[in-house]
Design goal:
By secondary structure, the protein is α/β, with parallel strands linked by helices. The longest helix is centred in the N-terminal third of the chain and has 14 residues, at 7-20. Strands 1-7-6-2-5-4-3 form a seven-stranded mixed β-sheet. Helix content is 25%, strand content 29%. Helix 1 (7-20) crosses helix 2 (37-47). The structure holds adenosine-5'-diphosphate and magnesium ion.
């Protein structure tokens, strides 16, 4: 469990995780509107040495960025549990990192190895809970504790 007190702490935590990411890593970001999913992704992008500005993919579903690795940033809120409307295989476990806002709404059997990060609004700021499925995801969750 992690706590961040403001936007810049949340970005710093994202950057820390971003520096650990490798090709094929998949992250799901869950949490209410305004919980900080896109803000956290800005941090991930920083850790991936992406210079472009990260914009919310709410209306485009997916945005792609190039840094140390490609980043596929998705927001699947609008497609909900209709995974046929997007071919996730184009992104998952390829040569980039895939970050999916609202990914918990998708059929979880699509994911073999994934870290799910739940962001919660608390009086002190944002609380983050990490859950790992798969060996690589477990490794990442372990590594961020010591990063
Ligand atoms: P989401 O993508 O989950 O809808 P955003 O990252 O777009 O959320 O928005 C988070 C909003 O909450 C931003 O406007 C940010 O300024 C605000 N905010 C307030 N406190 C915090 C905090 N402690 N950490 C992150 N964002 C915060
Ligand atoms: Mg968002």
């Amino acid at each position: 469990m992690f706590y961040t007190h403001n936007e810049s702490e949340l970005i710093a935590l994202g950057a820390k995780l971003g520096r650990l990411l490798k090709a094929g890593d998949v992250l799901i970001l869950s949490g209410d509107l305004g919980a900080g999913k896109t803000t956290f992704t800005k941090g991930l992008a920083k850790g991936l040495a992406i210079e472009q500005m990260i914009k919310s993919p709410t209306y485009t579903i997916v945005r792609e960025y190039q840094g140390r690795l490609p980043l596929f940033h998705l927001d699947v809120y609008r497609i909900g549990n209709d995974p046929d409307s997007i071919d996730l295989d184009d992104f998952l476990y390829g040569d980039g990192v895939t970050v999916i806002e609202w990914g918990e709404l998708l059929d979880q059997s699509l994911f073999s190895d994934v870290v799910t990060i739940e962001l919660r609004i608390v009086p002190e700021g944002r609380q983050l809970t990490l859950r790992a499925q798969g060996a690589r995801a477990q490794q990442l969750c372990e590594d961020i504790k010591h990063a």
